[in-house]
Design goal:
Distance between the termini: 61 Å
Helix content: 25-40%
Strand content: 15-25%
Number of strands: 14
Largest sheet: 6 strands, antiparallel
Number of domains: 2
Radius of gyration: 26 Å
Length: 268
């Protein structure tokens, strides 16, 4: 059984991919934008980083050129371990699997795997991620329940500290909450991606992770409105129906005893 020569694939926020290949080789592939046709490839191994290459992942001549560059660059110098012992002499091959690994990497990029036969290349060329409005709906669904009342008005139930707060979709507090979770999740996504890049590059990584994190994208009003429209539809047609009351609610409405009174303080 042939061994897998592509050990890991990491999607980056900018729509690029980082591959961990056999023989301790890493590759960063950036995809063309605005009608371009060539990918950009950056390879490194331990403390050796090669010059950037360009080409097409579906072109044999490009793959052959990348293999040639890897063999010349990674095998050129003598390699020693931390105690100074010679591991490889200058010119000795230390990447015997590079040709098969690059071929497998390119095959994984081009193979149809997603919905409608979409390949990784197709996905990443389009930006490699969901549009902001769809990401915001995803973030909201992970932290809140979408529901509606008997009049089909849409609400979200959000866990805050040790209690649950219910927001109507037209309330300013709901929009503030959306902006907060978008910023928090986008920031976490960017930090995680940069930490992965730093880990992959090891000693070749330049600077501190916190200094290299790109700015958190700003949520535009149109994107927020698109997300709210989607959440409203989900609340009305997929969410459960609940009784909604203001300030005072009979417990019997939810099958409970007594009367519930909202005191208007921070503990709800």
């Amino acid at each position: 059984m042939a061994k897998d020569l592509v050990l890991d694939i990491r999607e980056q926020p900018d729509g690029s991919l980082i591959f961990e290949l056999a023989d301790e080789v890493w590759a960063h592939v950036s995809f063309p934008r605005s009608g371009g046709s060539k990918e950009q490839l950056l390879m490194w191994r331990k403390d050796v980083m090669l010059a950037p290459e360009s080409g097409r992942v579906n072109s044999k001549s490009s793959r052959d050129a990348w293999v040639k560059a890897a063999r010349e660059g990674f095998n050129e110098a003598e390699e020693r371990d931390e105690e100074g012992r010679v591991l490889y002499k200058a010119g000795q091959d230390r990447i015997p699997n590079i040709e098969a690994a690059i071929k497998e990497m390119c095959a994984k990029i081009c193979a149809p795997t997603g919905a409608g036969g979409q390949s990784l290349r197709d996905k990443m060329t389009k930006g490699g991620k969901l549009p902001p409005a769809e990401r915001l709906v995803q973030y909201a669904s992970e932290k809140a329940e979408f529901f509606h009342d008997a009049d089909r008005r849409a609400y979200v139930a959000v866990e805050r500290d040790d209690h649950v707060e219910n927001y109507g979709l037209d309330q300013e507090v709901f929009e503030d909450w959306l902006e907060w979770i978008f910023h928090r999740n986008e920031e976490a996504r960017l930090i995680f991606a940069e930490e992965q890049r730093a880990q992959a590059m090891g000693d070749l990584y330049v600077g501190l992770v916190e200094d290299n994190i790109p700015p958190t994208p700003v949520l535009r009003e149109s994107q927020k409105n698109d997300a709210i429209s989607k959440i409203r539809a989900l609340a009305r047609f997929r969410g459960r129906e609940h009784h909604v009351h203001t300030r005072v609610a009979p417990g019997a409405a939810e099958g409970l005893d007594g009367i519930f009174v909202d005191l208007g303080d921070e503990t709800w």
